[in-house]
Write a structure and sequence with these properties.
Elements lengths: L1 E4 H15 L3 E5 L15 H5 L4 E3 L4 H13 L3 E5 L10 H8 L2 H4 L9 E6 L14 H5 L5 E4 L3 H13 L4 E6 L6 E4 L15 E4 L4 E5 L3 H14 L4 E5 L2 E3 L3 H11 L2 E8 L4 H13 L8 E5 L10 H4 L3 H11 L12
Parallel strand pairs: 2-3, 2-4, 4-5, 5-7, 6-7, 10-11, 10-13, 13-14
Antiparallel strand pairs: 1-8, 6-12, 9-11
Length: 336
């Protein structure tokens, strides 16, 4: 095992994928000499050259359009969108071309494109630098959508995404880029858990807490605080937002009978709404209470000084746990 930050693990995943297959090419703004805004691609230009680590103009639609052309020619392009809010100029290319060309050509054309997106809030950034656009892509048939939460998963899942013949939207929680964890750089990729499987991060019996990305850290804090009050929470990291591993989710909900789903993105038509609807369809007779959502608010992402009020925090998660358990607000310290 090697201890790496999540950012370094992503860089290691890119490096190994490029060594494994010379058809893997990187495209993005400032990814070459600078090594990317977050230094994820640092050192790759020196190792692989400018023909495979391509500094592009500031034109997201052009970047993704170029990746489509490269995929047509048999390459496996990996696109870096510099910040989450910058993906919107490329939205037409992604939903109208990347997601549909395989279907449109009756399988004759593959789109093995990985679109990396530094994503979500918690870093005190300006507008368009802290957004959570995952629901747009989850709604788009033809795309896989992955959200990682730790260095090991970042390393493995990125390599799996690049090796996949499906187009993958790959969300990287930017506030975790400097968080460290053990990564097995030597284990064969074939031995890794499939990219689409959810992961039980913590086992429990009283309620299931489902989330992904940087919210996993908050969920684990909530589980620790709940344990102090004698409440056992099971925490599930979805990992894959499209498709969702509903077999694992349903197994947990049938055990606990209660569920809270959390994410940073806005509440309206978010991933949590779809997950809860699907849980209700699959597990209705097992539910002891109505599932609840804990999400960001239905507002544009706020200025840095206000983001702590927007992001779901420990108290909001624990309040939802109290409600699905029909308890007074003992976990948060508030009155009933």
């Amino acid at each position: 095992m090697t201890e790496l930050t999540l950012g370094k693990a992503l860089g290691a995943g890119l490096r190994q994928a490029m060594r494994d297959d010379d058809k893997v090419v990187l495209l993005g703004e400032d990814i070459g000499k600078l090594g990317g805004v977050f230094r994820i691609t640092d050192g790759l230009l020196d190792e692989f050259g400018a023909a495979r680590v391509i500094d592009t103009p500031l034109a997201e639609s052009g970047i993704v359009g170029t990746a489509v052309g490269l995929a047509f020619r048999g390459y496996r392009p990996v696109v870096e969108i510099q910040f989450d809010g910058f993906v919107y100029p490329a939205f037409d290319q992604i939903v109208a071309q990347v997601a549909k060309l395989h279907y449109r050509t009756q399988g004759r054309v593959k789109m093995p494109i990985t679109i990396r997106i530094p994503w979500a809030g918690g870093i005190g950034a300006a507008e368009h630098h802290s957004e959570s656009p995952e629901a747009y892509f989850v709604h788009t048939a033809g795309l896989r959508v992955i959200a990682v939460s730790n260095p090991e998963d970042a390393y493995r899942s990125l390599r799996q995404a690049i090796a996949s013949d499906d187009p993958v939207i790959f969300f990287e929680p930017k506030r975790l880029y400097h968080h460290k964890g053990d990564v097995d750089l030597e284990a064969p990729l074939a031995d890794a858990a499939p990219m689409g499987l959810a992961r039980v991060v913590r086992t429990g019996n009283d309620a299931t807490l489902i989330t992904y990305g940087a919210m996993i850290s908050t969920a684990l804090q909530a589980a620790d605080a709940a344990a102090d009050e004698g409440v056992s929470l099971e925490v599930i990291d979805l990992r894959s937002l499209s498709p969702v591993d509903y077999d694992s989710v349903a197994a947990s909900v049938r055990k606990t009978g209660r569920v809270v789903v959390a994410h940073e993105a806005s509440r309206e038509a978010g991933v949590a709404a779809e997950v809860i609807a699907s849980i209700t369809e699959r597990c209705f007779e097992y539910l002891e209470s109505a599932p609840l959502r804990v999400t960001g608010h239905d507002v544009p992402y706020p200025p840095a000084k206000l983001e702590k009020y927007h992001l779901p925090d420990l108290d909001r998660l624990l309040d939802a746990v109290d409600r699905v358990l029909d308890r007074p607000n003992s976990l948060t310290g508030a009155g009933a």
